[in-house]
Design a protein that fits this description.
Layout (H helix, E strand, L loop, with lengths): L12 H13 L7 E3 L7 E6 L3 H11 L5 E5 L2 E10 L2 E9 L1 H8 L6 H22 L5
Parallel strand pairs: 2-5
Antiparallel strand pairs: 1-2, 3-4, 4-5
Helix pairs in contact: 2-4
């Protein structure tokens, strides 16, 4: 039996606080599956299942680095992580292998290219969302 104390919700304050901040400051973020594992109490996990455009909105909002692709069988994903307001954040999107491959090609190599590409994707996503909702872009 371990002598380690059982983690409490207070131990999860950093990720919960960041999520509360995002809820208030960035209410436009697409809904995602979010969580704080009891074993990794300092990490906010964000999972996007409904498209890489929504993943890009999160990626841009959080300012995380360019994602790494992965695949197991027919399941493919993009993942990235980093610190946001001193909280470790893991951002993952699930999509088809073809969508992930298309997303990764061509891969920008310079930081300015990555930033420009993410800004363009976020702008396109925001415009498409507004148009779908019947507003002006």
């Amino acid at each position: 039996m371990s002598n380690d104390p059982t983690p409490t919700i207070a131990d999860q304050g950093g990720p919960i606080g960041l999520l509360a901040y995002l809820h208030t400051a960035m209410p436009h973020l697409p809904a995602a599956t979010v969580g704080v594992d009891r074993g990794a109490t300092t990490t906010l996990e964000v999972r996007v299942y409904d498209g890489l455009a929504n993943f890009n909105v999160w990626l841009t909002a959080l300012g995380l680095g360019y994602p790494t692709p992965g695949q197991h069988g027919t399941t493919a994903w993009l993942t990235t992580s980093g610190k946001v307001a001193n909280v470790e954040v893991e951002l993952t999107a699930y999509a088809s292998a073809d969508e992930v491959d298309a997303y990764m090609q061509p891969l920008p190599t310079a930081p300015a290219e990555v930033s420009a590409a993410l800004t363009a994707m976020a702008t396109a996503t925001a415009s498409a969302t507004v148009q779908q909702q019947g507003g002006a872009a």
